[in-house]
Amino acid sequence: MEDLIILQKAFEMMEYGYTALAQYPKSEKFALVVDIKHCMHKILEKIIEANKKYYKKTTLQELDVEIMKLKAYLRLSYNLKFLPSKKYEIWSGKSVELGRMVGGWIKSTKKD
């Protein structure tokens, strides 16, 4: 059941992200915006893969890395003033929540 919740949270984070990315300057449409979208897509892919695989450890670690990358991109966006503080707080909050869920998922696979 955890996987369905994390998938829903990933969709919510991506939906929010897409609306926020629409407001980035044109000069970043083919640079930072593409990197962030790619990162969000990888997060979604890794969640689906981890849900379907029998051995999840490596996939979950890769998922954790992608979430860390997204957090770094968001911080950079905020520092460059592409992302207003309110949107940064909301979006990074959603990514932190995903990170916590992945951490719990990793812990639960270690018990098995």
What does this structure look like?
It is a single chain. With 112 residues, the protein is an all-alpha fold. Helices cover 81% and strands 0% of the residues. The protein contains 4 helices and no strands. The radius of gyration is 14 Å and the shape is elongated. The mean pLDDT is 94.
Main features:
112 residues, mainly alpha, 4 helices, 81% helix, elongated
Question: What fraction of residues sit in β-strands?
Answer: under 5%
Order of helices and strands: HHHH
Distance between the termini: 16 Å
Helix percentage range:
over 70%
Judged by helices, strands and strand pairing, the structural class is: mainly alpha
> Using only CA atoms, what is the Rg?
14 Å
Low-confidence stretches: none
The tally of helices reads: 4
pLDDT averaged residue by residue: 94
Shape: elongated
Number of strands: 0
Main beta-sheet strand count, sense and barrel state = none
Element layout with pairings:
Layout: H1 2-21, H2 32-52, H3 57-79, H4 85-111
